[in-house]
């Protein structure tokens, strides 16, 4: 990720004493899932809400609550501040925000934040009246003026029963904002179109033909593209996943709907990444009612081929970039090369879905990037890392063996 190069990004999680402190556990897990190493510092009040043992178990590292007894360091506030690539304050209380604005460092957490030279993200969580208090608003303005980033607060029902602004932002939103501090903003000005997930081909109103795709890979690509500054449209088949923050999602169900929506959205896009597992066949004549096996035996289903989304995009792409996926169970690279040539894509992402680490639903993937210039094999990586590796091949000079196509594209 940008300045950190190939090193695992490091995030310092500063947990303050608010009722939403338990949400910091979910933020930690979200950052880890995105490939980050996380360490934690907590205020004494935060420990009253969630014990240090919880964060130590999740992070695999000691939690810094004191300047005097941190294992392995006599100056934990300096060592942690220099270790971190970004710091996230969650939930940021009015008290800690006031201390940050005034440069007060009277415990381990505030002393560490004062020593941080890395980007800092504040996620406020407090009562609506505390948030709207002029002193808190002035402190927030001061911090923003110094370059501190904010995410939230949201409006909703608060722990005290009040309704209003002050609710901690969603975990996914906080994680996305934190990752944005770590990564490059090299896709600003690009409109990236991603399709993802399976399609459901109706047999009748109840039954359908589908596949095992979960959409995880495509959603990871959409999230990474948005984090790196792109305008992102996600055309999604049926999935239980939540749209990433900052991504516009277009929901579809069938292959025909996926085809029409993807082609329509491509008109305004610079890049299309086709990660969806679109059905190759669909029933010719789906029933308009639930078929009853007692009187309407389904001995055979007449199928017809679905439209080829990748080929149709490539036929109209001009200088734009189109990336396809090849999910195979045998002869992976041969099939990927054939698909690249036959459909005219700029790159095919090949993955063997018979392998447990790269099958549908896995949180990792082992892919090869296949272009006219050759094959680049990646190791098994978390899905966010695969997404970033792919997107880095889209920007000029972004990766091994790559270069621009036209003014902005992939070689």
UniProtKB/TrEMBL annotation:
It comes from Thermophilibacter provencensis. This is Coenzyme A biosynthesis bifunctional protein CoaBC. In the C-terminal section; belongs to the PPC synthetase family. Its cofactor is Mg(2+); FMN. The keyword Magnesium applies. It holds the Pfam family Flavoprotein. Coiled coil: none annotated. It comes from the Bacteria. Residues 192-411 are annotated as: Phosphopantothenate--cysteine ligase. The lineage of its organism: Bacteria, Bacillati, Actinomycetota, Coriobacteriia, Coriobacteriales. Catalyzes two steps in the biosynthesis of coenzyme A. In the first step cysteine is conjugated to 4'-phosphopantothenate to form 4-phosphopantothenoylcysteine, in the latter compound is decarboxylated to form 4'-phosphopantotheine. Catalyzes two sequential steps in the biosynthesis of coenzyme A. In the first step cysteine is conjugated to 4'-phosphopantothenate to form 4-phosphopantothenoylcysteine. In the second step the latter compound is decarboxylated to form 4'-phosphopantotheine. HAMAP family: CoaBC. Residues 188-395 form the DNA/pantothenate metabolism flavoprotein C-terminal domain. Residues 10-179 form the Flavoprotein domain. GO terms for molecular function: phosphopantothenate--cysteine ligase activity; phosphopantothenoylcysteine decarboxylase activity. It catalyses: N-[(R)-4-phosphopantothenoyl]-L-cysteine + H(+) = (R)-4'-phosphopantetheine + CO2; (R)-4'-phosphopantothenate + L-cysteine + CTP = N-[(R)-4-phosphopantothenoyl]-L-cysteine + CMP + diphosphate + H(+). Pathway: Cofactor biosynthesis; coenzyme A biosynthesis; CoA from (R)-pantothenate: step 2/5; Cofactor biosynthesis; coenzyme A biosynthesis; CoA from (R)-pantothenate: step 3/5. Keywords: Decarboxylase, Flavoprotein, FMN, Ligase, Lyase, Magnesium, Metal-binding, Multifunctional enzyme. Binds 1 FMN per subunit. The active site is at residue 160. CTP binds at residues 280, 290, 325, 339, 343. Its EC number is 4.1.1.36, 6.3.2.5. Residues 1-191 are annotated as: Phosphopantothenoylcysteine decarboxylase.
């Amino acid at each position: 990720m940008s300045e950190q190069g190939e090193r695992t990004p490091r995030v310092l999680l500063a947990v303050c004493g608010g009722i939403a402190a338990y949400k910091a556990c979910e933020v930690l897990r979200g950052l880890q899932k995105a490939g980050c190493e996380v360490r934690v510092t907590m205020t004494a009040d935060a420990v009253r809400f969630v014990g240090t043992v919880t964060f130590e178990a999740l992070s695999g590292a000691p939690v810094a609550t004191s300047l005097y007894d941190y294992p392995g360091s006599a100056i934990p506030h300096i060592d942690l501040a220099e270790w971190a690539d970004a710091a996230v304050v969650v939930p940021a209380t009015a008290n800690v925000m006031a201390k940050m604005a005034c440069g007060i460092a009277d415990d381990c957490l505030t002393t560490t934040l004062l020593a941080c030279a890395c980007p800092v993200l504040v996620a406020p969580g407090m009562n609506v009246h505390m948030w709207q208090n002029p002193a808190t608003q002035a402190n927030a303005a001061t911090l923003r003026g110094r370059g501190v980033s904010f995410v939230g607060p949201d409006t909703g029902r608060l722990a005290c029963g009040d309704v209003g602004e002050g609710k901690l932002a969603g975990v996914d939103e906080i994680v996305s904002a934190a990752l944005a501090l770590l990564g490059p903003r090299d896709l600003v000005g690009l409109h990236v179109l991603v399709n993802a997930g399976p399609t459901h081909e109706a047999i009748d109103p109840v039954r359908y033909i589908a596949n095992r795709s979960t959409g995880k890979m495509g959603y990871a690509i959409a999230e990474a593209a948005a984090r790196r500054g792109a305008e992102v449209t996600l055309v999604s088949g049926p999935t239980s996943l939540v749209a990433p923050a900052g991504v516009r999602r277009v929901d579809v169900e069938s292959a025909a709907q996926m085809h029409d929506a993807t082609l329509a959205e491509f008109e305004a896009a610079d890049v299309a990444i086709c990660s969806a597992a679109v059905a190759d066949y669909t029933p010719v004549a789906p029933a308009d009612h639930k078929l009853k096996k007692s009187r309407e035996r389904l001995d055979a289903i007449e199928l017809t081929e679905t439209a080829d989304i990748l080929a149709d995009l490539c036929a109209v792409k001009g200088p734009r970039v189109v990336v396809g996926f090849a999910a195979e169970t045998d002869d992976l690279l041969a099939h990927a090369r054939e698909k690249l040539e036959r459909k005219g894509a700029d790159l095919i992402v090949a993955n063997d879905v018979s392998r447990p680490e790269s099958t549908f639903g896995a949180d990792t993937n082992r892919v090869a990037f296949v272009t006219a210039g050759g094959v680049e094999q990646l190791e098994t990586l978390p899905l966010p890392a695969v997404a970033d590796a792919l997107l880095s091949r889209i920007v000029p000079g972004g990766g091994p063996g790559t270069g621009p196509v036209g003014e902005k594209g992939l070689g």
